[in-house]
Amino acid sequence: MVSWSIGNVLSKAALCCIEPLSLLTGQLAVSAASLTVLSIWSGAPPRLSDWRAGLPGLLQPALASGLSTFGLTMLPASVEAILFAVETPMIILLAWLILGETPNRGVGLLCLLAFAGVSLLSWTSEPDPYATRGLGVGLVLGGVLFASLYSITVRLMSDRIDALRLTTVSQIVAFAAVACVWIGVRPLPTLTPTITDVILVVASGLLLMSIPFLLYGIALERMSATAAALLLPLVPMFTSIFASVFLQETLTAKQWLGAATVLVSALGMPLALRSKPHD
Predict the structure, then answer these.
(1) How far is Cα of residue 144 from the mean position of the Cα atoms in its chain?
(2) In the chain, which ranges are continuous DSSP H helix?
(3) Which of 13, 259, 267 is CA-nearest to residue 121?
(4) Which portions of this protein are annotated as coiled-coil regions (predicted)?
(5) Model confidence over 205-216: pLDDT tens digits?
(6) pLDDT score at 138
(7) Rounded to whole angstroms, how far apart are CA atoms 252 and 180?
């Protein structure tokens, strides 16, 4: 979660000088290359026959990150963050319907608490001129849905495929898909990146794509999709903290209260998971 948050901050810094689709393509290239090297070093290089195992990469990060990035161009960041708070209850709902992971009352209350915390964290007193932009809301919610389906799919596949192999081929498939779109949407430009641009792309690719997705895959091997979903609200909390430190973004008193609420929700997860599921 910390890696995801730092990667988000680096991506925000990079977007001031790099076009969003180009940034996503570069990040996925770094992620796919680094995970391939790690797989080769571990003695299990990716094979061409593994392409089916990489199909979850079309859900996340290809579709989820792509839709949410373009949706963010039509919405303020606070609205986008509130919409992504829906991911936790959406994963729990899908895990209940698809995996049969019945949530108990404690887990349900923690979901509501996490949602309330992220809402406070993203609250702003300024008027929102973009409230009627339904297309942007639809794109972000589409990204949330694809990210949730990714978690469910990886949980289903984790019993048969180890996390490193699954994450590597997923990132390779995602990079191939996004790169094809990037090439098709616009002709290859004459790139003149600066050293700072390269550092931001490489660092955000590692911290936003390869490292957190690999660790998240390992977590899904060892816990239920419901348990993993309850950790996701930590991402906007840590992102806000790091943004306030490194990007000089300030939080209001209500937003700090939201950050504390999300943290309490995450810390209460182990106690809730020990409780008997609710019939």
Answers:
(1) 9
(2) 2-14, 20-41, 56-57, 64-72, 77-84, 87-94, 105-121, 134-157, 163-185, 195-205, 211-222, 225-229, 234-246, 253-267, 269-273
(3) 259
(4) none
(5) 999 899 989 988
(6) 80
(7) 42
